[in-house]
Amino acid sequence: xxxxIYTLGDLGPNPHTGETISxxxxxxxxxxxxKLADDAGLDIFGIGEHHRLDYATSSPAIVLSAIAxxxxxxxxxxxxxxxxxxxxxxxxxxxxxxDQISNGxxxxxxxxxxxxxxxxxxxxxxxxxxxxxxxxxxxxxxxxREEIVTWQGKFRSNLKNAMIxxxxxxxxxPIWIGVGGTPESAARAGRLGTGLALAILGGNPMHFKPxxxxxxxxxxxxxxxxxxxxxxxxGHTYIAKDTQQAKDEFYxxxxxxxxxxxxxxxxxxxxxxxxFEHMASPxxxxxxxxxxxxxxxxxxxxxxxxxxxxxxQMDIGGQSFSDVAKGLELFANEVVPIVRRETxx
Length: 345
What we know:
CATH superfamily: Luciferase-like domain
Helix content: 40-55%
Order of helices and strands: EHEHEEHEHHEEEHEHEHHEHEH
Strand order of the largest sheet: 1-2-3-5-8-9-10-12
CATH architecture: Alpha-Beta Barrel
Distance between the termini: 11 Å
Structural class: alpha/beta
Number of helices: 11
Strand content: 15-25%
Number of strands: 12
CATH topology: TIM Barrel
Low-confidence stretches: none
Mean pLDDT: 96
Shape: globular
């Protein structure tokens, strides 16, 4: 199994001090986190895209290019690129450039996005939310296959013998579709033969099994080889020496995280400790606990989904960089080796 970490670059206040770090400091810390992940031997590092003042990363390709300069082997991906409002040509050329800079380490996870601020920002109608994504993902795949592209669609200007430059070092960029819980999105990933990246942020993982089954069914019906299909699972993660310590330390950050995310969506709600305890219980998808418990949860999900990649989000809720780095060290040293060993059997 490939294992890595990702960040959305959120700029939340530290719940203990009330202080929020600057965008420039957050970006420097993200670059350093990518270097630490590479040094620790992780396989993948991802950066999300948001167009808000309370997030630091509106352009994953630029930040990943900076990380490419201080890393050697780790794969670099968006988590995710909001393809409904991105020009597929611009997205492909940005990540093909990243692939050249990183010597063949670029990937794209494309999604429809959990926020909608990019629609008015780039002049798109929210009522075209799904149709935009469908058109753009198909064009992105064609750009990935062909150097000279002729194409006609509804939402952007047509292409006639357009040269798409640069070409990536890889024969094709790996493209995944990020899915939060929509059956139609899982089926689309299968139908188009992309990877499936599941964002499982809570609840019972069993609820996501039908999405994986639907992905494989749609792919096989569309004529794609089972061997070419890939599933990734992502999840919020916090690790400490023992589970009680992990829950005690993480609750203020996690409650804080959902407080400002819900506020961004127009809701004034906070997570109670009892709700958090339920979310962090052994049978749920929230990865909070000792290295042993985190390992067990990853392996339980692997038995359920048979996925090839796990990506943890470890830096949410206004945590200090030193705390995130400490969690990464535990993850890399005490979780990853066991997961790799057990999943390679």
